[in-house]
Hints:
It is found in: Membrane. By secondary structure, this protein is an all-alpha fold.
Amino acid sequence: MSILAATGHLNLDTFSAEFIKAFWAPTAVTVAWLIQYGMIDFICIGASRTYFKWGFPKGAEGAPEPLCRAMRVHMNQLENSNHMLFTMWLCALCGLPRFAGAFGALWVAVRCMYGFKYRMTKGNLKGILQFTVPSYVIVQTFYF
């Protein structure tokens, strides 16, 4: 199965029903992550900006602390998602799609709790680490 046809154009048969059937778990995790990131993290930034009257394109400098935390969560989630999605799909394509989907779903849940804890906690590193370390361990399991 090749994404690009011999002509260099996107082959529409790539994401056929067979592909989705074989890789339903990592596909569902990818969609769940995009919904979680787009709906929860992104909306939290917008709601915080509106609440604190901190219009766009102002950055985090000088922003109220809760808004700064929401912005940090947003960027941390984005930074971590690239590595996780790559390794999850690599694991799935190497023959373990259900394993990759299960641990990917666990990662999404842990990162969702991390974001909630980070936004609601003021300077409590211990509280944040209880979700950060497991998320890194989950990503490392994809390599085995």
